[in-house]
Design brief:
Low-confidence stretches: 1-41
Structural class: alpha+beta
Strand content: 5-15%
Strand order of the largest sheet: 5-6-7-8
Shape: elongated
Helix content: 25-40%
Number of helices: 9
Number of strands: 8
Mean pLDDT: 78
Distance between the termini: 45 Å
Length: about 270
């Protein structure tokens, strides 16, 4: 059965039919047609413009244009970008009521770091869901799937990888990392935060991997070629130095690090 076409998506709004078309395709309403847009969306757009002007007055950095927005516009959808500002919470969510769907691009921790209340933000998103709006991802999905160890829970499914591990102790990290690192390049993430700090893309400097997971393990002096996701800077360390940094941070055994991070990934959480 054919689904009803979505009129507007994700910080996106209403679409209006092409005049004289029989195939039901939609087009974006041009600015001059704002007063004729369905459901009073012109008022929503004017409020969006007011919020943007307010952001400019506060010298807020300009919004980047994410690729998905360009693709949505190319598919005849309206997609508006909005900053969330805690002091404008009620106005922000009132504006969102005029959209069909919302894509949330606030990482966990960013709301609180900006002076807001994550729980209040999430509850407001749930309230929009109850009114029939689509929210991607929903607060509950973020809560249940946002932790890095969620990947470990699907490791044995067809969409998972059996060499996806979570480390909860020094012994598990030392044994598991050396075994997985010997098999394939790795992405190592601390189990908290979403800014890219503590997320490492790691390859063996030699490029020599074993053919099967668990066939062998790396030696302590094996050299690693590493890049950190938050700023794409590169470092080289031995396996022993990396494990020491993950456990204890900068010490005489961890070598010299240029990252802004402090390591100690098991401290106060899980690696």
């Amino acid at each position: 059965a054919a689904a009803e076409p979505l009129r507007g998506v994700a910080l996106g709004g209403r679409l209006v039919p092409h005049e004289g078309r029989e195939d039901g395709r939609h087009r974006l309403a041009p600015p001059a047609a704002e007063p004729q847009v369905q459901d009073g969306f012109g008022a929503v757009l004017r409020t969006v413009s007011a919020l943007r002007r307010l952001g400019q007055e506060r010298e807020r950095p300009p919004l980047r244009q994410p690729p998905y927005r360009q693709r949505m516009i190319a598919s005849d959808m309206s997609c508006q970008l909005l900053h969330y500002v805690p002091s404008e919470h009620d106005t922000f969510f009132k504006v969102l009521e005029g959209f069909d769907a919302i894509i949330v691009r606030c990482n966990p921790g960013q709301i609180n770091a900006g002076g807001g209340d994550q729980m209040k933000f999430d509850d407001s998103m749930r309230a929009l869901q109850k009114k029939g709006l689509q929210v991607w991802p929903s607060p509950d999905v973020m809560m249940n799937m946002g932790a890095k160890d969620a990947l470990c829970k699907i490791a044995d499914l067809e969409i998972g990888l059996p060499d996806t591990l979570a480390y909860y102790s020094k012994e598990a990290l030392d044994e598991g990392f050396k075994k997985t690192m010997a098999f394939q390049p790795r992405v190592i993430k601390q189990n908290r935060g979403s800014s890219g700090e503590g997320i490492w893309i790691i390859k063996l400097k030699s490029g020599s991997y074993c053919s099967a997971f668990g066939e062998t393990s790396c030696a302590d002096d094996e050299l690693l070629d590493m890049m950190e996701a938050n700023d794409n800077h590169s470092e080289e360390h031995t396996v022993a130095e990396f494990v020491e940094f993950c456990l204890n941070g900068r010490t005489s055994k961890s070598g010299t690090w240029t990252t802004k991070g402090v390591g100690k990934y098991l401290e106060g959480g899980k690696a």
